[in-house]
């Protein structure tokens, strides 16, 4: 089998560095000597032989590492010129008149070798800096898109491991306060070492002192790893450690690059912490706004029925003999209805309290939408016997994961609002369907529709601006929104093009599908 030149070069490059450099240092001068002999025989002159050997020194310096091999090539060039191309031939004679020439040639060769090695080193460092700059830019770009502290930590560990080729650990909390580090390691033995008490103490000192600790430092020098603090604007955000192997610490330029990378991580962590605080502040502001709106709605929706109850009861108590039985019964009926309304209002308030205090404790079970719709309409007719509701459900049996009691409350609130506020005699429509992976519930009426000023805030708990202000819908719709969102769904309101309003809410079907499977 024929071996190509590339295969030979690849085989040579796999040799250990000293052996490869020695081979290059011997092969190139030998090849140049052969070429010089051919040139000397062809031209009949040895005037340019020294230049050819200087070229050999340049080539040796280019393809080897360090200054030693260039110096050896310079000496071999002088000896080769003296032995093969200086009279007497094939002897080493430096006492002839060529001594100054040989010395000058050696000096030129050494200077050329030194300059070549320096240029090569500068080119290597420039390429290395460019590569690390690209890596740092790539790392900073990925940090910008990293969502959450865990993603930032994982990305940092990946780049540290790629750069150092050593096991690394990242603490986002002080190990003395119970913080547990995130590892990226090559073997279980390294993981056990990095999680030992001595290493945790070194990491703790990095949190406390804000300086580099562990191996190679004066703080916890017996530790197996070196720990860098991760800090931004004087705030400690974490500590990063890497295992110091038998090869010792990485080079100074690598440590500098490491510090730059950690500083990028610190800025990303600080940005994430600030974002989380800002988000928490926004959520708290929204909660406060909702509480304010809820209190305003409660005061609006409770004041009128209480006034009616007080007025009717006062009329009965103050004029027992003047009120005829028919009027008395009507007043008592009004008191009864207003008391039922207050009970339902209290139920709504208890529901929203339950949802906001423990939203993850909903008792969601697959329920048949036909049964939920029928039960909601039945309960509505007990309160409004004259209400007309048309129900439309899918022909196929549809199971939806939900808390049945809460979803019935949503439907009853929407149907009751349609009965009270629509201002129309046409039947209310309750339609259930499936769209993509959601069950869709729609309550439609053909009344006067919703106010355009109220529509953007209709679920925020504002009191209704309908003329029938004795039954404000603010609290009920706010409760509906809370229940639907706790189920992972959405709720919207809109005006129908042909008149009336439509309230739509969705419930996800994923849990139902997994249950059926």
Q: Cα-atom Rg, whole angstroms?
A: 43 Å
Task: Name the CATH class of the largest domain.
Answer: Alpha Beta
Strand count, sense and barrel status of the largest sheet are:
5 strands, antiparallel
> What string gives the helices and strands in order?
HHHHHHEEHHEEEHHEHEEHEEHEEH
Distance between the termini: 61 Å
Low-confidence stretches: 463-473, 512-517
Number of domains: 3
Say how many strands there are. Answer: 12
Q: What's the name of the CATH homologous superfamily of the largest domain?
A: Histidine kinase-like ATPase, C-terminal domain
Mean pLDDT over the full residue set: 79
Describe this structure in words.
The chain is of the alpha+beta class and about 525 residues long. The protein has 3 domains: about 5-130, no CATH class; about 145-250, GAF domain (Beta-Lactamase), CATH 3.30.450.40; about 360-515, Histidine kinase-like ATPase, C-terminal domain (Heat Shock Protein 90, 2-Layer Sandwich). The protein has helices spanning about 5-15, 15-45, 50-65, 70-85, 100-145, 150-165, 190-195, 195-210, 250-320, 325-355, 370-385, 405-420, 475-485, 510-515; strands at about 170, 180-185, 215, 225-230, 235-245, 365-370, 390, 400, 430-435, 440-445, 490-495, 500-510. The protein has a 5-stranded antiparallel β-sheet with strand order 2-1-5-4-3, with helices on both faces. β11 and β12 (about 500-510) form a beta hairpin. The longest helix is centred in the middle third of the chain and has 67 residues, at about 250-320. The two termini are about 60 Å apart. Residues about 465-475 and about 510-515 have low confidence and may be disordered.
